[in-house]
Structure formats: C-alpha cells, structure tokens
Prior knowledge:
Blueprint (H helix, E strand, L loop, with lengths): L2 E5 L2 E3 L5 E8 L8 E6 L6 E6 L5 E3 L8 E6 L4 E6 L8 E7 L4 E2 L3 E5 L2
Parallel strand pairs: 2-11
Antiparallel strand pairs: 1-3, 3-8, 4-5, 4-9, 5-6, 7-8, 9-10, 9-11
Amino acid sequence: QVQLVESGGGWVQPGGSLRLSCAASGFAVSSYVMNWYRQAPGKEREMVATITTTGGNVNWPDSVKDRFSISRDVVKNTVFLQMNNLKSEDTAVYYCQRPLGNYWGQGTQVTVSS
C-alpha cells in the first residue's frame, strides 16, 4: 500500500529555513519521479520541485529557484524539500506526490511571518 507522510512544516520568520520530509512506504522513492507541490489560501496548487529517478532535480516556479532544493534518502525512503530564505509568499500547505498513480500525502502547513 502506497503511503506518503509529510512532516517538518511550521512557523518561521522571513529569511528563515525549513526542511520538509516526505516519508514513503509501499514503494521505493528511488524508482519513481517524486514532486513537491504547494497550495496557498485561495490559490491553485502549484508544483515547486521534482526529483527524477536518476536523482536530478528541477525547481518550479522561478520564485523558488536558488532557494528551494529537493533531495532524497534511499535508506530512509524519504524525499526532502529544503527551503531557504523563506518569504511570506511561501506560506502554503506543502504536499508530496508520486505522479505515477497520483498518490498524495496529507500535506504540512508552512507559515512565514514576522
């Protein structure tokens, strides 16, 4: 049974950092493309990062480039989203997704404010 569980969200001041985790079970994260999405209040869900099966990563959109990075730990079977220099506009619920089969976690709230 495929399961994704996000953690690591919380409140942080602008300029701060958070690392989100997505613990996977029922499959190996190294064998699948994995994505991080976010959804801010009143906005559509948007993709922010992708990690490929070869470990390559892409960040979307331009607003998170050079601030966010995606990685994985194959031993822990976990995908991470490192977020640096956080801004108020990064406030959202963050979700991880395995696109093959369209599996989603429950999300973790990130709030950036002073």
